[in-house]
Request: fold
Amino acid sequence: MIKHLCSSKYYIAKNGMYFLSFFLLPNLKIMTQLVWLLSHRIRSRLATCCVLGFWLTTTSVTLAEYQPPPDQKPPSTYTQSTGSRGGCKVNTDTSIATLAPQKHIGQTALERPTFAWFVPDSKPYPLEFTLYKYAPGGAIQLAYKTQLKSSPGIMKLSLPQKNPGLVFGQRYIWQVAILCDPNHPSSDVVAKAEIELVKMPPTLAKEMFGVRDTSQKIDLLAKAGLWYDSLGEALTAKDVGLRKLAVTLLKNLAKLEEPQATQANNTQTINLRQIAISSEEQPKLPSSQ
Reply:
């Protein structure tokens, strides 16, 4: 009996090996080949997707191109009196500058848009942001004022939620002033720009609906003439590549205003170009308030 069992086990083991040798092993080879082919195709597709995704990201980052609104209006003479130029230090290469149009009134479709400006001084100074609105008679009235601390490079600010936002159809002047010497207001370094709140065109609102790609949003807003909204989207983007779109927008604006630049605002055009170059070489997050 024991011998029979042993011989049976031997037979089973022998036939088991035969089964493995002649059935499983060839199939294992086939399965191995299939797995290799599948993994190779998956890797190829992943590589293709990565290259395509990189290409799309790269091309989308270069899309933004600002086009002034078709009904652009010239700013008032208030924006021409900008006070002292340069920075608190006389030898600064660039002046304080509002990152906004000077030859026409920049538009926004937001009640609380992003205001942005450039500070040339590396040393912090008291800084004052002021927003004025036009009264019916043409005079200006104070709408908002706040005290900040200057920071070198690009700074930005949005109106607080507790304060009233902009009003449709209303024109505003906003200015930033670096208080170089609080005891001598004549030494303040000032820059100004105008802004107007307009309603978003229905066609643009339809295009913007459902768009998740930030670069596409920036491009749509820029081509619609909404300067403050396109620049604001670019400056607040978390992706460094998208923030570079702000540089593209500044270059666009400098190029657009250069043919029309007068001696009074030619400095602004030069500033925009220099700011774009410096921001491109040394990208940094703008200071938020």
